[in-house]
């Protein structure tokens, strides 16, 4: 068939952040599952890398094939955060693509944005050709198919924009008429939505280094500050069978040792107990841990803690949000101090040593008494922890679009600092650590979260002045932003002021599904501290998002069946008496297709019953529990192997800890079972030779590892491992050794390196400087590390040096006190500064071991 469309999925932040985002991975999988589509990735380069790229006139390119972004058909930007705006401009500018959509010509790629920040697209609209509002799984293929047809018809740029404008959930800024609204795109059934069965595994450590499985989307709690809880309605749960199968496939494909069960509130998942129990029984023998990153204080209990801790105690955060019950009623949080106490006690009783708490300051109607209560609650939590550590994170409330608090104001920077100090003065306990969100970052976030189209000029001005990675505390330059606001005639403070209820809002043309009338009613209820119930446990609240044909809550739970009737298209209100009691909503005929014809009388009869019952399963036996759980081996047979491997090419830039993780996951993917240490945090028994300097290639890296219950020959072990390792990490020799053999580090005597491509020196100069070093009785070198200066005699560490043309070979001693970096040794011997030796190529060619070391019958010193 051939590739008809090439797409770059762009994340306007660092690689470590972007590769932790599940949405990017899902879209990458969806697009590349089609033979006629090809998706690659691109990330924002860190400022030092950007500087080097500009100096070398190197355009920003894709990660997979190094294709310049300007040569792709379409760029899809993931807008997860308001402060990624300058990251978008940075990537476009580095790609040599005009920043403004109006300036792009027929040969330029189309620029599309999506994600939470797209629910207020106004500040970024001039830079984008189109936005996808809402869920992207189906929309991304609609965009692609439309573009393929447009390319076949050889249409002009505007023709494609007009075709995109007709797609549900797609906003084209250049073509929108003043009275038009754009309704969000919704994936009705998560079980039918595509999800990767083999996630991409980064070589380096990322923010979230794990398998993430979305167990549900949307939330019914109704917290009035939470944008995600509003715009991602209704709640749709993925079946436990499907979750379990996706976890199993991804663990096998990636080798990751942790599975995170993701949703806005994982503890609210209807079958969370069954799911956790089944997955721990299946995966704990494989040393795969479970984590629930998002938990409410009223959804975490002792049983959940006991299941999670079976492999190791992954971290979790409990979110009281506010300090008093009064303020929690204002925000409709619905939890209590007793819930927090019960959750903290359960965690520490189960063996956790630390728990994180999350609070907000600046919420509507907050007083200093509420601040007192935050400090008091943190202190109480420390007492409930009984010696454990409490980490409290306190952020500043930002009123977001499409929430009941969108009319509220945001506290200014000075007031934020006052409230932070007010809380901090109470907390001097060593067992309590408190972290406050940078008020400057919150200020800029609030401006853009509530901003309009006028901010586009300020964004470009800030970018031109050097604004980058504004969401990072240590990168935000507030003076630069204030200069940009002044240059463009913008008063940023006005965006943080309260909004009049009757005035239009910049994002009103975006229909999130939740009606403005409902949001206004919720705002009024917050003033009176009136609660709104969770619609999964009671009457429908009439938020307006459900049409009860394709869009409705899909929940798993009680097997009790109820039947009820609603009119087709009911959107802004639902009749009283309709109750959703934690059960799945499925048409009586069993056809969940959105194209199902309505009943002749204009009404649709819907049956409520559990998804497990639909599949003929018994509710009291969760489908994700295996028929026979793997039992721990009472006494495993352990064999020890020693591997020599090469580290070549791009892999030379991989740090030592990343190499350790890479091998660990390679063993898991190859199904070679490593022996583990004992205790609360078991680690695989792998022992590496001393870390190799970053950027250095090697022909002689070593690894000792212990396998259990295997009868494979060393050749077969090497073959299995090689299949799971990436190019650049090449297993060369592998043999079995004694379990009582000395450790690698204790037996290595010497490293031999070759240094080549010394362009700054002639061959004669290299020879002369090497001879001068050899003749000298001492050779003192000074270095500064961690702020401390030290002087060493290089002659104590260099056991031999020789040159052959422009190549020098250096033998460096290794011992318990370490060794000398080969670059440091070469630059000192040749009298070069670090900048002058950067062009040199360094390779470790051999390792010499003690003569007394046991090699298991293999020539350990044979590295060539």
Structure characterization notes:
The protein has 864 residues and is α/β, with parallel strands linked by helices. Among the domains are: 5-183, Response regulator (Rossmann fold, 3-Layer(aba) Sandwich), CATH 3.40.50; 190-496, Alpha-Beta Horseshoe (pyruvate-formate lyase- activating enzyme), CATH 3.80.30.20; 633-745, Alpha-Beta Plaits, CATH 3.30.70.580. Helix content is 29%, strand content 20%. It contains 25 helices and 31 strands. Strands 22, 23, 24, 25, 26, 29, 30 and 31 form an 8-stranded mixed beta sheet that branches. A 6-stranded mixed beta sheet has the order 2-1-3-4-5-6, sandwiched between helices. α9 links the parallel β11 (258-262) and β12 (289-291). The two termini are 46 Å apart. The model is unreliable at 558-633 and 854-864 (pLDDT under 50).
The total strand number stands at: 31
Number of helices: 25
For the report, how would you describe the main beta sheet? 8 strands, mixed
Shape category = globular
Kindly name the structural category.
alpha/beta
CATH architecture of one domain: Alpha-Beta Horseshoe
Mean pLDDT: 86
- Span between termini: 46 Å
Low-confidence stretches: 558-633, 854-864
CATH topology of one domain: pyruvate-formate lyase- activating enzyme
| CATH class label of one domain | Alpha Beta
Strand content: 15-25%
The CATH superfamily of one domain bears the name tm_1862 like domain
Percent of residues in helices comes to 25-40%
């Amino acid at each position: 068939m051939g590739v008809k469309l090439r797409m770059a999925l762009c994340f306007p932040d660092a690689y470590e952040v972007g590769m932790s985002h599940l949405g990017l991975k899902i879209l990458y999988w969806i697009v590349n599952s089609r033979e006629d589509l090809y998706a690659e990735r691109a990330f924002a380069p860190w400022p030092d890398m950007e500087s080097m790229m500009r100096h070398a006139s190197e355009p920003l390119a894709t990660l997979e094939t190094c294709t310049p972004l300007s040569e792709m058909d379409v760029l899809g930007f993931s807008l997860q955060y308001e402060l990624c705006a300058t990251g978008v401009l940075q990537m476009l500018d580095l790609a040599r693509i005009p920043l403004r959509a109006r300036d792009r010509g027929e040969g330029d790629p189309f620029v599309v944005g999506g994600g939470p920040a797209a629910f207020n697209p106004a500040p970024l609209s001039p830079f984008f050709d189109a936005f996808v509002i809402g869920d992207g799984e189906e929309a991304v293929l609609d965009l692609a198919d439309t573009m393929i047809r447009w390319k076949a018809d050889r249409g002009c740029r505007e023709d494609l924009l007009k075709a995109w404008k007709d797609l549900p959930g797609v906003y084209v800024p250049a073509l929108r008429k003043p009275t038009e609204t754009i309704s969000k795109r919704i994936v009705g059934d998560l079980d039918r939505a595509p999800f990767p069965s083999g996630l991409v595994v980064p070589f380096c450590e990322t923010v979230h280094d794990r398998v993430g499985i979305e167990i549900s989307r949307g939330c019914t709690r109704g917290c009035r500050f939470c944008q995600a809880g509003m715009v991602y309605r209704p709640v749709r749960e993925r079946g436990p069978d499907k979750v379990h199968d996706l976890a199993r496939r991804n663990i096998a494909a990636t080798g990751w040792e942790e599975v995170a069960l993701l949703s806005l509130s994982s503890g609210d998942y209807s079958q969370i107990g069954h799911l956790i129990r089944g997955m721990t029984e299946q995966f704990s023998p494989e040393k795969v841990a479970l984590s629930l990153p998002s938990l409410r204080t009223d959804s975490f209990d002792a049983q959940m803690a006991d299941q999670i801790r079976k492999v190791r105690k992954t971290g979790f955060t409990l979110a009281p949000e506010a300090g008093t019950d009064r303020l929690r009623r204002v925000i409709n949080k619905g939890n209590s101090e007793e819930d927090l106490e019960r959750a903290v006690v359960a965690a520490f009783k189960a063996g956790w040593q630390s728990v994180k708490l999350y609070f907000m300051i600046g919420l509507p109607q907050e007083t200093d008494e509420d601040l007192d209560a935050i400090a008091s609650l943190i202190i109480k939590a420390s007492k409930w922890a009984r010696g454990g550590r409490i980490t409290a994170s306190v952020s500043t409330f930002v009123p977001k679009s499409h929430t009941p608090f969108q009319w509220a104001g945001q506290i200014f920077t000075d007031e934020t600092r006052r409230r932070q100090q007010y809380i901090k003065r109470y907390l001097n306990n060593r067992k309590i650590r408190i972290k406050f969100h940078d008020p400057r970052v919150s200020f800029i976030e609030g401006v853009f979260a509530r901003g309009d189209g006028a901010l586009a000029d300020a964004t470009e001005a800030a970018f031109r002045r050097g604004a980058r990675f504004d969401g990072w505390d240590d990168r935000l330059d507030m003076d630069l932003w204030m200069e940009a606001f002044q240059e463009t005639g913008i008063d940023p403070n006005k965006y943080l002021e309260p909004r009049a209820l009757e005035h239009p809002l910049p994002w009103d043309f975006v229909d999130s599904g939740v009606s403005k009338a409902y949001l206004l009613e919720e705002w009024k209820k917050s003033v009176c501290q009136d609660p709104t119930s969770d619609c999964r446990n009671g009457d429908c609240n009439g938020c307006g998002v459900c049409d009860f044909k394709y869009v409705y809550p899909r929940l798993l739970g009680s097997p009790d069946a109820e039947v009820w009737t609603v009119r087709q298209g009911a959107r802004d209100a639902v009749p009283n008496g309709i109750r959703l009691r934690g059960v799945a909503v499925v048409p009586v005929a069993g056809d969940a297709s959105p194209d199902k014809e309505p009943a002749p009388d204009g009404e649709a009869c819907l049956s409520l019953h559990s998804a497990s019952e639909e599949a003929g399963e018994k509710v009291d036996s969760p489908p994700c529990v295996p028929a026979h759980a793997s039992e721990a081996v009472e006494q495993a047979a352990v064999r020890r192997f020693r591997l020599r491997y090469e580290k070549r090419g791009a892999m030379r830039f991989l740090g030592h800890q990343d190499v350790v993780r890479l091998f660990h996951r390679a063993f898991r993917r190859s199904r070679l079972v490593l022996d583990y240490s004992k205790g609360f945090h078991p680690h695989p028994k792998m022992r590496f030779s001393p870390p190799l300097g970053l950027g250095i290639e090697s022909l002689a890296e070593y690894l000792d590892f212990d396998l259990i219950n295997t009868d494979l020959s060393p050749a077969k072990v090497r073959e299995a491992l090689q299949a799971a390792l990436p190019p650049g990490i090449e297993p060369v020799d592998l043999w079995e050794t004694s379990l009582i053999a000395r450790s690698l580090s204790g037996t290595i005597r010497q490293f031999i390196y070759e240094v080549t491509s010394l362009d700054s020196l002639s061959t004669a100069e290299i020879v002369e400087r090497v001879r001068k070093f050899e003749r000298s009785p001492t050779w003192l070198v000074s270095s500064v590390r961690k702020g401390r200066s030290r002087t060493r005699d290089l002659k104590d560490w260099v056991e031999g040096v020789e040159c052959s043309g422009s190549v020098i070979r250096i033998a460096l001693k290794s011992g318990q006190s370490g060794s000398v970096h080969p670059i440091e040794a070469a630059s000192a011997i040749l009298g070069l500064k670090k900048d002058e030796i950067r062009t040199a190529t360094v390779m470790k060619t051999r390792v010499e071991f003690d003569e007394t070391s046991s090699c298991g019958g293999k020539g350990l010193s044979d590295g060539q």
